[in-house]
Amino acid sequence: MRITAMETFLLQSPLERPFGWSQGWTDHRATGLLKITTDAGLVGWGEGISGPAAAILRDYFAPHLLGQDPMQRNALWHRMYHTLYNANLAGGFGGSALSAVDIALWDIAGQALGRPIYELLGGQVRDRVAVYATGLYYTEGEFPHRLLEEARGYVAAGFRGMKTKVGGLSLAEDVRRVAAIREAIGPDVHLMVDANQAYNPATAIRIGQMLAPYDILWFEEPVAAQDVDGYLQVKAAVPMAIAGGEGLRTRFDFRDFLARRALDIAQPDVINVGGITELRNVALMANAFGVQVNAHVWGSPVMIAATLHVMATVPPCPTARQPLPYQQEPVMEFDRTPSIIRETVCREPIQQQDGFVPVPDGPGLGIQVDEEAVRRLCVAHQRIP
Q1: Where is the Mandelate racemase/muconate lactonizing enzyme C-terminal domain (predicted)?
Q2: Which residues are the active-site residues?
Q3: pLDDT more than 90, % of the chain
Q4: Which of 76, 153, 355, 375 has the fewest Cβ atoms within 10 Å of its own Cβ atom?
């Protein structure tokens, strides 16, 4: 079996109501999908291939992929990484391109063998993964009524945890929002906050201490993504767990964060970190250091399914007689903000029930991508060769 062609699709869908976070505001959702075709008729799908990442696929990776056996994904991963290494391109869009190809190759391998990806990774530890609701962004006129209605809706849907944004308003205003959400959802639902790198360490410490009365489970990306010492400074001064890592690429970016205990919770993202191969590597590294892995997820069912397969194989941290989500068991982000992409590019959208999502058990990713929907939402397309 040989790789014969690759296609990239940049997808966009409008938002009825724009929303914001600490670093920006958007009126649409977007992602990039990759389709790899083989001479055996098998097709694999990956995600993360948009903008400059598509150019990296064409200019750097295509010569090393076309005509090659897709089953040799380990050798192909390292060959692609090597093409980026000397020019220091493995971060940013280079890591995204690498991730997309890797996911698609695992999808093909699973289909070729008639097995789900989690079996190729050694078998599942769990057949469903606990998820928390991500939403509660900033929107115009949302506070308090619409914001609190959204939060109560997540509780009614069975979620045992949810995450909101901080860093886009003054400290006092953000604390007011968090306090109102806590009152609305009660004391028994986990509540997390995400600053998206909004603060310097001193300010992050200040708001972390202000939020302490509201029983915040974790404080996500309090400072700049690469600032290991900043993370350590905040971690030493606030009572909640510190989380981060969604934008880090490969195990090498995670090395110092794990070795220096700068994170309580690592959040690798399968379409950033280097695909299924490297998400698995980072998860096991983190487990060895006693760091919980709660994967970051923000995109289409392709990345959701890829993440579920890896999270199905990650052991509890630490082992326990009865490991529980949010304590020893991993929990996974489950985006609830509006997204036509997320709801339509898979023939059967991935759903949660009572705060858990079942792991797909079909061959490869175990999902059926609706290529008609992909092409309908596509705003830029590239085929190689």
Answers
A1: 144-241
A2: 296
A3: 98
A4: 375
